[in-house]
Amino acid sequence: MLARSFPPIADARARVLVLGSMPGAASLAAGEYYAHPRNAFWPIMGELFGAGPELPYEERRERLMAAGVAVWDVLKSCRRVGSLDTAIERDSEEANDFAQFFQDNSAVRLVAFNGQKAETAFKRHALRTLDDATRERLTFVRLPSTSPAHAGRSLAAKLEAWRAGLGSGERAT
Asked: Is 39 annotated in the active site?
């Protein structure tokens, strides 16, 4: 099935961009980022920015933007059966327009990947589309996936990694 991502959650206050790979089936059905009830994204955002899952989706979006956090996905579209990143057909991957995003959101300094697939897809498709000045101003960090498919870490461990990573000034290689 062809999956298409959503527009970014972002405004002029964005200083951090959190990137997933592609919304899962529950998110696509709901029309909301990280809609699967066992995904740790919104509980983590609740702890860090007061944008927890108990709030209506629009309020969560507003709180993230007020905190300078943007959310998007690396892929604009892809073919995938189910929700797993491993099911994405690599030859079908089409990236979002990051050159335009970073031009429009020039205050972004930190790009945080929600898991390995997001980082890999960004490096494969998007990094080369950025000019030198944009690449130089950005710091990249890979964080543990919030997906329920990645149950090897507890919510507490994921939260601490996200807290450290979003405060990180280290460049990922």
From this structure: yes
- Domains of the chain (ranges, CATH numbers): 2-166 (3.40.470.10)
Catalytic residue, candidates 39, 96, 105, 114: 39
């979002």: which residue's tokens?
Answer: 96
Q: How far is CA 36 from CA 43, 53, 77, 88, in A?
A: 12, 11, 19, 18
The per-residue pLDDT for range 49-88, each reduced to its tens digit, is 999 999 999 999 999 999 999 999 999 977 676 555 665 5
pTM of the predicted protein model = 0.90
Cβ neighbours of residue 172 closer than 8 Å, sequence gap 6 or more = 113, 119, 139, 140, 141, 142
